[in-house]
Write a structure and sequence with these properties.
The protein is an alpha/beta fold and 347 residues long. 39% of the residues lie in helices and 15% in strands. The structure holds iron/sulfur cluster.
Length: 347
């Protein structure tokens, strides 16, 4: 994880942009692990969250596909030797792939020495006997990133159709037991806040839930934003701002006091959350971000079944490109590669 931290450091604001890219070039040139792999084994979800494109019938119809064992093997052979982190689940729900396949993938990542493996999930199946969190941790899972959009039954189930609050509570208790047995295992919570669920970040709700189950090691709070079609239509941040101190502000302090990491927007940042990423961050992300799914991997002209990612990067003269970008004072605007990123403070 130290190398991953280095890459994250490259996203910090105090280092000159050219130095960040040069640092990445050096890491790459030394043959270090420099890629973050975000793998969706299944393009489907068991829920229809209101703020997610899975609540849009047209988008849902577009999302389909299950990764084949051959493709998993090809991606592992080609990419895992340069992977700093494997994130299972990115734009869909990975647990519907099944416990055995997930455990095999985690073991496979371990066999290639991938230093950190995380699973992003809505957690509903992990609360049942269908997918055992403990079995995945035994296989080598380092972290569960749990998506939850409420801390009370009414709001949680309203915003996450198909989910049951009792499953969320049950899973958090399972996490408590797993952490007791494997103290290094981490729970990260992703909470997208909107005008309806901001009240669920108040002390009598979210603290009450965590107090009776388990507190996360990391909590990221994202303000709702429109990234595509979904059932949710209120993208104003006024309600969040008006309750900021008693919700996000207070919870941030509580997390800090517990030694947990809070990744949250400040009050001033709430209205500037959607920014086009450009310059050094875009160069770094374009190089290090490897999204893989049943039908895509890293770049359109890269086929993991035919060449290793190291060979691909050599073929693309990536070292030279990075060094040039590092020393270029007129860095490309990269409009075509900009992505929506949220501004956050890590506390
Ligand atoms: S669990 Fe995640 S992928 Fe599934 S509908 Fe909800 S937000 Fe979307």
């Amino acid at each position: 994880m130290k190398l991953y931290s280095l890459l994250k450091l490259a996203g910090g604001n105090r280092i000159p942009p050219g130095m960040k890219i040069f640092g990445l070039a050096v890491m790459y040139g030394l043959g270090w692990r420099v890629v973050g792999v975000f793998l969706d084994p299944v393009l489907n979800c068991n829920l229809r969250c209101q703020m997610c494109y899975f609540s849009d019938p047209a988008k849902r119809a577009e999302m389909h596909g299950i990764i084949t064992p051959e493709r998993v093997k090809a991606i592992a052979e080609s990419v895992f030797p340069r992977a700093l982190k494997l994130q299972i689940g990115c734009a869909a729900e990975p647990t519907i792939w099944g416990q055995d396949k997930l455990a095999e993938l985690i073991l496979l990542a371990g066999s290639y020495g991938v230093p950190y493996v995380s699973l992003t999930s809505n957690g509903q199946l992990l609360a049942t006997s269908r997918v055992s969190l403990r079995a995945l941790v035994v296989a080598g899972l380092d972290e569960l990133t749990l998506s939850m959009h409420g801390s009370t039954p009414e709001i949680y189930e309203e915003l996450m159709p198909g989910a049951k609050f009792e499953n969320l509570e049950g899973l958090l208790k399972i996490v408590r037991a797993v952490k007791d047995e494997f103290p290094d295992f981490k729970l990260r919570i992703n909470f997208t806040v909107n005008s309806l669920n901001v009240a669920d970040l108040a002390e009598d709700r979210i603290d009450a839930l965590f107090d009776r189950t388990v507190w996360p090691d990391i909590m990221q709070i994202r303000p709702v934003q429109k990234l595509g079609e979904s059932r949710w239509s209120d993208f104003s941040h006024d309600a969040i701002k008006s309750r900021y101190d008693e919700t996000i502000g207070r919870l941030t302090e509580r997390l800090k006091s517990r030694g947990a990491t809070a990744i949250v927007p400040s009050l001033a940042e709430l209205d500037e959350v959607a920014t086009d990423q450009s310059g050094a961050s875009a160069v770094i992300e374009e190089f290090t971000y490897c999204y893989a799914s049943p039908d895509s991997c890293y770049k359109p002209d890269f086929d993991p079944a035919k060449e290793s990612i190291s060979r691909y990067l050599r073929r693309k003269k990536s070292f030279r490109t990075l060094v040039k970008a590092a020393f270029s004072s007129n860095r490309r605007a990269r409009k075509s590669n900009t992505t929506k990123k949220l501004n956050y403070h890590v506390k």
